[in-house]
Amino acid sequence: MTPTITAFERSPDRGKGLARDMRVRWALEEVGQRYEVRLLSFAEMKEPAHRMLHPFGQIPTYEEGNFALFESGAIVFHIAERHTGLLPDDARARARAITWMFAALNTVEPPILDRGIATLLEHDKTWYEERLPILDDRVRVRLGELSSLLGDAEWLDTAFSAGDLLMVTVLRRLSGSGLLDEYPNLSAYVARGEARSAFKRAFADQLAVFTGKRPTG
Ligand code: GTB
Description:
Blueprint: E1 4-8, H1 21-30, E2 36-40, H2 42-45, H3 48-51, E3 61-64, E4 67-70, H4 72-82, H5 91-121, H6 128-150, H7 162-172, H8 184-194, H9 197-211
Parallel strand pairs: 1-2
Antiparallel strand pairs: 1-3, 3-4
Helix pairs in contact: 1-4, 1-7, 1-9, 5-6, 5-7, 7-8
S-(P-nitrobenzyl)glutathione is lined by residues 11-13, 18-20, 45, 57-60, 71-73.
């Protein structure tokens, strides 16, 4: 059955692939699973029909018939478990990849999110200029640790996994901040993720929502 996901009808990032449907699209492309997309306005996300799928009235969601999921990490995990290509077969390597999925969402993303919210919603506050460097430094702590761990390796563990997919999407949220540039190996890691053909297809599809131009090829 072809799954259906939800995404913004008008993404605030104007197609930069920073909203969380991007990680679900990328996972589906990695495993070669076709999917449909239902686009929602902000008002539609808060309506009872959508809240039946997502209790917090957000995107993305994932539906297969009458089976529905919300939370991008849970959706990527579901896709990774049901197909080959995103989680290793070896039990220990699989557990390590799942650990990286949690680390991306639960350890690395929170300070990046705090910074993003401040720049988006708090830039007109009197204390903003004082707070931003504090938030930047909290992000730097995690980036420094991740950078040391990654070293000159290609991926977080022995092969690309759902852990890398989530980590790359989390790090991409720093685009335009200049923070990632301070860690050349992390910039290169993100670039490696973005160079994957599955990423490119997912990116083109979410961009087409904004430009109205269907991707070719
Ligand atoms: N923990 C949930 C998950 O991982 O799925 C969080 C879901 C979530 O935050 N969804 C956001 C949403 O629906 C879209 S992704 N927001 C509307 C609302 O809460 O009313 C967050 C996001 C939005 C926009 C950009 N951007 O434009 O750069 C980046 C990220």
